[in-house]
Design brief:
This protein is α+β, with helices and mostly antiparallel strands. 29% of the residues lie in helices and 40% in strands. It is built from two helices and five strands; from the N terminus they run H-E-E-E-H-E-E. Strands 1-2-3-5-4 form a five-stranded mixed barrel. A hairpin with a 4-residue loop joins strand 2 (42-46) and strand 3. The longest helix is centred in the N-terminal third of the chain and has 25 residues, at 2-26. It is globular. Mean pLDDT is 83; it is low at 14-25.
């Protein structure tokens, strides 16, 4: 009986790790789209099949509007945190990295 309990705990742990890895992989990525709106620390990106609320504070601080304009075609990489997409990088269609050197 003890061996069965230990085996069940081990298998359950492996399943939990696999599920956590899948969830993490789905919560990050890269999106390309057109900027629809800009505010001091973020912008709305229409990526065609979805619209993202991008949090750019870690890259641009409160100066996003100095780098990003409505109509810009951008690619963002990052991860979802609650309802925002936290940007790790923001790149123009020409390959120019915005906000950070």
């Amino acid at each position: 009986m003890k061996l069965f309990a230990v085996g069940s705990i081990f298998v359950s742990s492996l399943v939990a790790v696999g599920i956590a890895s899948t969830i993490q992989a789905q919560s990050s990525g890269s999106f390309t789209g057109t900027v629809e709106r800009v505010w001091e620390d973020g912008f709305r990106l229409n990526a065609g099949d979805r619209v993202l609320r991008v949090d750019s504070w870690d890259l641009c601080g409160d100066h996003t509007a100095s780098y990003v304009s409505v109509g810009d075609r951008l690619t963002v990489t990052g991860e979802f945190e609650l309802r925002d997409f936290d940007a790790f990088s923001i790149t123009t269609s020409d390959g120019l990295a915005l906000c950070r050197a």
